[in-house]
Amino acid sequence: MKKIIILLIFLCSTFLAQIKLENTNVADLPKSGENYLPISFSNEWQMFHRYDNTWYSSTEYWLNTIRITDHMQENNLDYYKFSKWENTWIRYDLDSNRIYWKDSDGDKLYVDFNWEDGYHAFYPIDFWTDKVMLIETDSIIVNGEIKYLKKLSYDRWVFEQIEEYYLEDFGFYYMDYYNWEMGSFAYEETCASSKIIDQDSTYKYYDAGYEPEITWNGNSFNFILDTLYISTEIDHFFSRASYMHIYDTVQTLNYLEDVKLSYYYDYGNFNSDTTDVQLIPDDYLKYFSCVIQVCEEELLSGEIKLMARIYAKDKSLRPHEVYYPDDGYVELPYSSIIKRKFNDYATESPPIKLSNYPNPFNPETVITFELPEDEMIDMLLFNSIGEKIATLASGLQKAGRHTLRIDAAKLSLTSGVYICVLRSNKKSISTKLLLLK
Length: 437
Known about the structure:
Strand content: over 45%
Number of strands: 33
Number of helices: 2
Mean pLDDT: 84
Distance between the termini: 52 Å
Structural class: mainly beta
Helix content: under 10%
Low-confidence stretches: 1-33, 341-348
């Protein structure tokens, strides 16, 4: 019974398409746009993809760029290949505002953008028979101008539902594909940004309007002795992370091209040079972190001020750049969450050495430390916001060289920067550890 119903739906769809092909006359219909598929080898459409598979309970994200890859001329007509339809020659007729695709028995009409809203017959690209398409017209504001938006809805097969959107003067805008045959999966393709060559050989840009968002508060930085740890939340609509159940991994799309901390010291009557440090994202692209060594004694005495600024740039074809603060720098007042003993600076003692190798590491690194004499020590590991992760060693240690191994899996560590602090009765030192998965 199910097969009979599917066959009837398919036959009805084909029959309606044939009626439309025989009776639709578009010659006198008014145009509703200038160009819905601008063609030039320099044009680019940056597409954000989301794929949901309910069968595997998974979501994937990625970026790709649609480009024109080839060109040919036949019977004085220009045909192009797009990376979106890599096996098919496409022709856009500017005079009639129509998209055709080249078949072995001639050009097939994919869409006429002059059609009035409603149902029309067409040939899906690279498909063997005609179908029925629903056209709907909307408008949006792009760069201060009202632009028409054409929505094309159709069923390619009985179990496949497709929606495509084309934006006047900019082309590819959005595509939604749904298949419920095998457990169901959905796929969407959104234009994050596009770059189109204009008639005067200048570029015009479209983007979806999203830019990096920096969240900064009192928890965004911590001092641990002579080390400053920055960990700030930086979000972007097109930066996504999801847990892949089938692979037992975290899949991410980082849409941020550059994230960094800029800082300098204010000495009152002059400033030091500005230093830039890259911020590294965690596994879920939520927090971006870095570690720098600071002039602890001068900061503690109030002789200098540490001034900082966060910068983020995304991957749009015309990148968005944001700062915190918007104008100038913010002071980071010194206050270590670990206090030194009162005589740390007052007495000289043989040096305590601390290092680790490899660094960066995954999944293990070896901590090496040297003590000039027998001492009571604590070795602590801190995360990006100054929280203690583990006590690696504690108690009386003999003079000499010691090693211990850190296993990221056993400590449930995610990618990022960590601080290992070695404290004794006479000295406190730290080293930076970078975990890259």
